[in-house]
Specification:
This protein is 43% helix and 15% strand. The chain is α+β, with helices and mostly antiparallel strands. The chain has one domain (14-171): NADH Oxidase. The protein has a four-stranded antiparallel β-sheet, with helices on both faces. The radius of gyration is 18 Å and the shape is globular. 32% of the residues are buried.
């Protein structure tokens, strides 16, 4: 079992930050986080997530019009923003990624591919948040943006689609509300 300090770092004491210190994030930390998150399981090892780290002023300005008003300031001030997207044609890569070459035929229909890509990229995005925390970074995940506008700006060919955003950096801890309650095991789980 993981030690108490690690569990606190990645989940129990970690918070969703909205304010970050004006301190750049070393790209080596993003690579280190990737080396952790890439091992998280996905259906048929599909790995549909595509992550775009928006650091430059130009990339942020491209994102700005799609942000909901409450997310503009904190997103523009964060050291970087991860745009977690998914590849709608992830199945084309399954012959390389999965031990059964027939897997490509399981997902090569849009009504099957799309929900699987979304679901598995959501998992990978969660793994990413945990991995970023594990390497010492703070995160603030968001879904408060216009996906269609982001997709038009960043993915005009339509192959990739946006899932959610994650502001990343070194959180100040300012303005964090008291921790909200969580369900107990009995409220949320059933052993059948």
């Amino acid at each position: 079992m993981a030690d108490e300090k690690t569990l606190d770092l990645i989940l129990r004491e970690a918070r969703s930050h909205g304010k970050f210190h004006d301190r750049p994030v070393d790209p080596a930390l993003l690579r280190a986080a990737h080396e952790i998150m890439k091992w998280g399981p996905t259906t048929a090892n599909s790995q549909p997530a595509r992550i775009f780290y928006l650091v430059s002023k130009e990339s942020r300005e491209k994102l700005r019009p799609a942000l909901s008003a409450v997310n503009v300031d904190k997103t523009m001030k964060a050291p970087l923003v991860a745009l977690v997207a998914y590849d709608t044609r992830f199945y084309e890569l399954l012959p390389r990624l999965y031990h059964n070459p027939e897997a490509i035929n399981w997902y090569n229909k849009p009504h099957v591919a799309e929900p699987n890509a979304f679901r598995n990229s959501s998992l990978q995005g969660a793994y990413l948040i945990i991995a970023l925390r594990a390497v010492g970074l703070d995160c603030g995940a968001m879904s408060g943006f216009d996906n269609a506008r982001v997709d038009a700006a960043f993915f005009p060919d339509g192959r990739l689609k946006s899932n959610f955003l994650v502001n990343i950096g070194y959180g100040t801890g300012e303005g964090l509300p008291p921790r909200n309650p969580r369900f107990t095991f009995e409220e949320q789980c059933r052993i059948l």
